[in-house]
Amino acid sequence: MKEAKEHLGEKDYRLIKFDYRTSGYKKELPVNPLAKEFTQNLKSNGYTIVVSTSRPFKDFPKLESLTEEWLRLNQIQFDYLESKNEALLEKHPSIQFHVDDELDHALFFLRKNIDVYIVKRSDIDYGNVEMFPTLKFVADLNEVLYHISN
């Protein structure tokens, strides 16, 4: 994204991003093949599932319904769909762990000593950030299941 902003300029980048967010394309995004099984496993073990996202629902209200539709279409079980911000922890104070693929979106969980599992992506350089005792890098969602069941 940084390269796109630099190449296009801030104004053009925002226009393209607006078109992308309002196009309905996110409804067609591929799903992690393990996500359905992962959420089914969590539900069968009594977990309440809060899907948190950095998608800007306030700015693009249709994104929320598109996201819910995408989750249901892909049989991803969830109890709540929330914006990913610190207010989430006030609304759901008993969150036991958080799963993400972007570390910067998980920092407020780490600062509250909540276990965070980062499913590593090859296109992201995570650097050397193992300074949080509750942070674990994992290869996939099966590895998360292994950690939370042991």
Structure report:
By secondary structure, this protein is of the alpha/beta class. It has helices spanning about 1-10, 10-20, 35-45, 60-75, 85-90, 105-110, 140-150, and strands at about 50-55, 80-85, 95-100, 115-120, 135-140. It has a single domain (about 30-150), classed as Rossmann fold. The chain contains seven helices and five strands; from the N terminus they run H-H-H-E-H-E-H-E-H-E-E-H. The strands form two sheets. Strands 3-4-5 form a three-stranded parallel β-sheet. Strands 1-2 form a two-stranded parallel ribbon. Helix 1 packs across helix 2 (about 10-20). It is globular. About 10% of the residues are buried. The mean pLDDT is about 85.
Rg, rounded, reads 16 Å
Helical content band: 40-55%
Q: CATH superfamily membership, which one?
A: HAD superfamily/HAD-like
Strands side by side in the biggest sheet:
3-4-5
- Indicate the low-confidence ranges by residue numbers: none
Portion of residues in beta strands equals: 5-15%
Total domains, how many? 1
The number of distinct β-strands equals: 5
- Biggest beta sheet attributes: 3 strands, parallel
What is the end-to-end distance? Answer: 37 Å
The name of the CATH architecture is: 3-Layer(aba) Sandwich
> What global shape is seen?
globular
Q: So what's the CATH class? A: Alpha Beta
In sequence order, what are the helices and strands, one letter per element? Answer: HHHEHEHEHEEH
Rounded mean pLDDT is 86
Secondary-structure topology with pairs:
Elements: H1 2-8, H2 10-22, H3 35-44, E1 50-53, H4 62-73, E2 80-83, H5 87-91, E3 97-100, H6 107-111, E4 115-119, E5 135-138, H7 141-149
Parallel strand pairs: 1-2, 3-4, 4-5
